[in-house]
Design a protein that fits this description.
Elements (H helix, E strand, L loop, with lengths): L3 H28 L6 H10 L9 H8 L2 H20 L3 H24 L3 H20 L7
Length: 143
């Protein structure tokens, strides 16, 4: 069984990641308007053979509208993490793992097919930041 302090630390870490998804997702429709992220949209325009000088508001809209979906994933992940750590079973550990694998695997492949490697890279970092701590506490879910 995993050390209780490690279980608490990983639970808190995963809840913080869920919270970041909630807040980030809610802010995304506004963040897409910032000058700081415009290079990302120019990259998307290049990948999709659009002129980077044209109005990219449709691309900004498509990314921004995805924000609530990201936020809802965060809400659901918060619930699954909280329930799983409160009642740790092998099944609950696999549910958390499956949620991450399904998202990261398909999102990264789809992004890569279209040449948006930056998305796959971001997914990889997020995936490791979730799955590695989950791996560390897997023995705490042997019930």
């Amino acid at each position: 069984m995993s050390h209780p302090n490690l279980m608490t630390l990983v639970k808190t870490w995963l809840q913080l990641i869920a919270l970041a998804h909630i807040l980030g997702g809610l802010m995304l429709p506004f963040v897409v308007q910032l000058d700081l992220v415009q290079p990302y949209f120019k990259l998307m325009a290049e990948v999709f053979a659009l002129s980077p000088n044209q109005d990219l508001s449709i691309v900004q809209f498509m990314v921004g509208i995805f924000g609530p979906t990201i936020a809802s994933w965060g809400v659901l992940f918060w619930a699954v993490v909280t329930q799983s750590f409160n009642n740790p079973t092998k099944k609950s550990w696999y549910v958390m793992l499956a949620a991450c694998v399904v998202w990261a695997f398909y999102d990264s492949i789809y992004s890569s097919i279209f040449g948006l490697w930056i998305n796959a890279l971001i997914n990889g970092v997020a995936f490791v930041s979730i799955v590695l701590p989950l791996w560390w506490v897997r023995k705490g879910f042997d019930n």
